[in-house]
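Re: that backbone. Tokens:
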């Protein structure tokens, strides 16, 4: 079923017999993409409910908050660009596998959800979110496999969808930057009170 979805092999049983152990690209583009996204979507209602119940006065806009929002905004734009590339490619004679539509669409919705969660955290006493930090870690770990596969393919001279590879590398770099920013704590407004 997933092989038709990707138009390629989902799982190769002789994977470990190869000198270059790479997971099939279909597996990397489905399971390893959907695990972090599923984690976020399954736990987002709980996170938003927690934010709703602990509403306090909205905190001021910090540079850290703006940086995270801008980077996620770039991820949103890159997902829209990828979807536009797929639509342009599909208007030709080539058949585009369904996964090429599904992932950018899922990412568009996910980046919107991340923007909402980050914005809603401004009303919480605790501004930082372990939940989003865990999502970024999971996303980067799962993306590592596709990252190394695409690099290996490019080094072997295969220009497998060079535009999509570049978009992936840019998105991966932005995710790493957001994870680094997530390691810093938001300033508490109460610390600005002078005695």
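Recovered sequence:
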């Amino acid at each position: 079923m997933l092989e038709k979805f990707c138009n390629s092999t989902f799982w190769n049983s002789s994977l470990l017999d190869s000198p270059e152990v790479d997971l099939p690209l279909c597996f990397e583009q489905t399971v390893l993409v959907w695990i972090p996204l599923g984690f976020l979507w399954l736990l987002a209602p709980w996170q938003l409910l927690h934010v709703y119940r602990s509403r306090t006065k909205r905190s001021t806009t910090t540079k850290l908050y703006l940086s995270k929002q801008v980077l996620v905004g770039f991820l949103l734009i890159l997902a829209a660009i990828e979807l536009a590339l797929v639509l342009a490619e599909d208007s030709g004679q080539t058949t585009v596998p369904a996964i090429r539509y599904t992932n950018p669409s899922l990412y568009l919705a996910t980046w919107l959800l991340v923007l909402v969660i980050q914005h809603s955290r401004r009303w919480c006493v605790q501004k930082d979110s372990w939940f989003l930090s865990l999502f970024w870690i999971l996303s980067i770990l799962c993306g590592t496999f596709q990252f190394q596969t695409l690099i290996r393919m490019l080094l072997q001279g295969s220009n497998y969808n060079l535009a999509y590879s570049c978009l992936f590398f840019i998105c991966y770099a932005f995710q790493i930057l957001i994870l680094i920013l997530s390691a810093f704590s938001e300033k508490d407004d109460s610390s600005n009170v002078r005695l």
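Helices lie at 2-6, 25-53, 63-90, 99-120, 130-155, 162-182. Residues 63-184 form one domain.
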